[in-house]
Amino acid sequence: MKKQKPFFRFHLPSLLIAVVIFIIEVLIALYITDNFIRPYVGDVLVVILIYYFVKAFVHIGVWPLAIATLLFSYLVETLQYFQFVKMIGLNDNKLANIVIGNYFAWEDIAAYTIGITIVVFLEMYFKNRKNNYHERFL
User: Fold this and answer.
1) What is the pLDDT of residue 106?
2) pLDDT at 58
3) What are residue 4's phi and psi, to 5 degrees?
4) In sequence order, what DSSP letters do the residues of 52-92 get, joined into one string?
5) pLDDT at 18
6) N or C: the chain end with fewer CB closer than 10 Å?
7) Does residue 118 contact residue 46 with C-beta atoms inside 8 Å?
8) pTM of the shown model
9) Phi first, then psi: what are they for 100, rounded to 5°?
10) What is the pLDDT of residue 130?
11) What span, in angstroms and rounded, lies between the C-alpha atoms of 119 and 74?
12) Which residue numbers in the chain have pLDDT < 70?
């Protein structure tokens, strides 16, 4: 019988990826004021950040985590459509406006989808490389 892996764990490589992306996101927020990198690349990166942050602490498959991350991102964007921050009385709270956001955009939905697509391709690529390594050398 195959031993089941624990649901919670600590995976340092995933945490390091999340930290690096977080630093990039902060640098984008502080220093970039263009109409492409800040709004679109930032949204692509944020779903990658969320995915790898969760992966650092939870043992779950690529597809379930990718879908959960994407659905969470869509939920946040939907909350923006309904002006959730204003609805709960936090429209003057800068942190709430940064974390949840305050306006809906279909471009954001597309950026989140692109970000998760990148994650899935990267995960599959590295999984195949790891499997090929084991087949050749072990």
Assistant:
1) 96
2) 97
3) -80, 135
4) HHHHTTB---HHHHHHHHHHHHHHHHHHHHTTHHHHTT-TT
5) 98
6) N
7) no
8) 0.87
9) -90, -35
10) 73
11) 16
12) 1, 131-138
d(CA 41, CA 51): 16
Q: What is the pLDDT, as a whole number, of residue 138?
A: 44
> 3-state SS of the chain: helix, strand, coil percent to 5?
75, 0, 25
Helices 42-55 and 62-81 cross at an angle (nearest 10°) of 130
Distance from C-alpha of 135 to C-alpha of 138, rounded to nearest angstrom? 6
Token pair in block for residue 131: 């499997």
Q: Quickly count helices (H) and strands (E) in the chain.
A: 6, 0
Block residue for tokens 């945490």: 15
Structure tokens given for 117: 């697509």
DSSP label of 37: I
Residue 66 CB-density burial (10 A; 0-12 exposed, 13-18 middle, 19+ buried): buried
**Which DSSP state fits 29?**
H
* CA–CA distance, 38 with 23 (Å, rounded to integer): 14
Distance CA 108, CA 41 (A): 10
Q: Whole-angstrom Cα distance, residue 62 to residue 72?
A: 15
Closest CA to 105 of 17, 55, 35, 56: 35
